[in-house]
Amino acid sequence: MSRLNLYIYTFFEDIKTSLVDLSVIVGIIAIYQFAILRTVPDNLPSMVVGLLFVVLGLAMFLRGLELGIFPLGEDLAQQLARMKTRVWIVIFAFVIGFTTTIAEPALIAIAHKAALISEGQISSITLRLVVALSVGFALVIGVIRILINHPIHWYIIAGYVLVISMTAFAPEEIVGLAYDSGGITTSTVTVPLVAALGIGLTSNLKNRNPLLDGFGLIAFASVMPMIFVQGYGILAYVSSGEREIVEIVPLSETTSGNMAWTYIETFLGCVGDVLPVVIVILFFYWGVLRKQIDQIGARAAGFGVVILGLYFFVIGLELGLFPVGESLAVELAKTKNLGLIYSFAFAVGFATTVAEPALTAIARKAEEISDGSIKQNLLRIFVALGVGIGILLGAFRIIHGDSIVYYVMAGYIVVIIMTYFAPRIIIPIAYDSGGVTTSTITVPIVAALGPGSSRPFRTMDRNLSFSD
Questions:
Q1: Which of 53, 123, 233, 315 has a CA positioned 20 to 30 A from the CA of residue 267?
Q2: Predicted TM-score of the model (pTM)
Q3: Which region, left, alpha or beta, applies to residue 206 given φ > 0 means left and ψ of -120 to 50 means alpha?
Q4: Is residue 110 a contact partner of residue 181, using CB atoms and an 8 Å limit?
Q5: DSSP classification of residue 288
Q6: Using CA atoms, how far apart are residues 54 and 49, in angstroms rounded to an integer?
Q7: Cβ-Cβ contacts under 8 Å for 28 (sequence gap 6 or more)
Q8: 8 Å CB contact between 235 and 166
Q9: Between vectors from CA 39 to CA 37 and to CA 41, what angle results, nearest 5°?
Q10: What is the DSSP string of 334-366?
Q11: pLDDT tens per residue across all 468 residues of the chain
Q12: Rounded to whole angstroms, how far apart are CA atoms 185 and 217?
């Protein structure tokens, strides 16, 4: 079989897998929309087109990762690790963490919203810098841990303890934002490159197990922003004195109403997601290693396929899943049937996680490195069950108006306890799974579910903020 035929065959296998993954979401939406609510959405044709785009985009994205990001990331990490000084691999880790985070669209949107809600007490650009620095610092700690061969669980447990301790002192308004910051930093493009960094580094070091030592960097990138943002919140709210009210134009008002321009903006956004990764890789290959990239044509094609895959994926979500998911949440909340609301929250959390491209990429890599002892489909199902239960608890908390702090603290305590009993080989993957689940599909749909389910239950004097 020629290389071209192999690529075509593999691509169609990816499409088939994507169809199976998306069928779970489609099935759940269909059951609640047609069988329970007995309504037909107005945008049904566009939803069908959107789902086809999602399938195509997901398949292209995964194929692009295998062609470009994974091989380049692993090779670069191995070559930097072979240098006489280990300083460059540490610098590479920081630069990757900082540059990919500062340009993260989800972080930009959240930072803008935080500045709006806090009436200027939280600066949008400062918050982005704090989060980006925290991710860069987290990857530095993760790489140093691999180099000195320390067990990961002590670092993560210490991080969770610090998060819980700081929660007691952080302003209530900042806690929800800090917790969310730990999820939005692990984007669809960043996760595969960070995983490639860890795996490539451990593959070049003696007495290292890529499965045990290579994973875990994503977990650091999830925990550290929660610590940094709470620290920033304490300083911002304590030192600000009187509030500086600033006029901030909502993001929705800055977007052009022209549909063609919207598609162009979306494409440029996808290019912007990938461009920092390309720049960093080229700089370290040509500026630090002073080497050419092997099979540069195939690697460039891989990055191009990643961009196109992301574009089709995002367009498909905007056309189909997002509007239907939000309208379903609102309609179900209006019924005041808590059983329906909780079941939908669990189902949405499960289905979106199963189809999450970042999780799929990590699960594939885990199965590959473990020689099949860790089954990617089984891993994805268990992670999806965890997210489903988490979203269910989140819906329960919103409806009953409980504080987020107690739920998150209880969750971290359970994680710390289970770490002592879990096999050491699964701990890094388990920690990383907490970061990769909050990505392209899950975050927007779950974000729509939160306000949608809380609106009918909200009292007149209760405002929805990050803590809700």
A1: 123
A2: 0.74
A3: beta
A4: yes
A5: I
A6: 9
A7: 344, 347, 348, 351
A8: no
A9: 125
A10: HTT-HHHHHHHHHHHHHHHHHT-HHHHHHHHHH
A11: 567 677 777 778 878 877 877 788 778 888 888 888 887 777 778 778 888 888 888 888 888 888 888 888 888 888 888 887 889 989 999 998 888 787 666 677 677 777 776 777 778 888 889 998 999 999 999 999 988 888 888 888 888 889 888 888 888 778 878 887 777 776 666 777 788 888 888 888 887 888 778 888 888 888 899 999 999 888 877 655 444 433 334 333 444 456 677 788 888 888 887 888 888 889 999 999 888 898 888 899 999 998 998 888 888 877 776 677 667 777 777 777 888 888 988 988 888 888 777 788 888 888 888 888 888 889 999 999 998 998 888 888 877 878 777 887 788 888 888 888 888 888 888 888 877 776 555 555 565 555 445 554 444 333 333 444
A12: 12
Contact of 107 with 185, CB cutoff 8 Å:
yes
Placement of tokens 């669990």 in the chain? 346
Q: Which residue type occupies 94?
A: F
